[in-house]
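Render this sequence as a predicted structure.
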Amino acid sequence: MATTYTLISSVTVGSGGAATMQFNSIPSTYTDLVLSFSTRDTVSQNGANIKITFNSSSSGYSERLLLGTGSVAASSSQSTTFFNFMYDSAALDTANTFGNGQVYIPNYAGSNNKSTSADTVSEDNATLAYSALTAGLWSNTAAITSITIAAVTNFAQYSTAYLYGISNA
């Protein structure tokens, strides 16, 4: 069975930055979704969390995180009002570098709760850089029709996100 990726939409942050990147009116014609991103936050720290919500919902998110920092490995579980499982580069990381990651969302239009898996990394040419693997669950049976990605402060200019639909044919 062949798998086909189709670009649904992309966002590139312009001059001055942006607090969020949004994908609206996601069609229900695909089997799964893949969200890929390359981002940098303007917050004054090393590495920054990226928050994701579906359909503007502020409830039902839970996740299990495996994290490495270059010197420490850790794991955690949490239930929150958004997915808080991704890392990007921030203002104290190496200048002009961007973190990146990918989130896989199977059966996004189905009538069951929505699971996710994510692989993310911040970029820093030093010993402190974040790498995370995350399994998430949105306890909601609604089809995903919108995705909002939020920065801690602002996404820097040239941050990008791409949303792909996957068809099994």
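Summary. Residues 26 and 145 are 5 Å apart (CA to CA). The chain has a mean pLDDT of 87.
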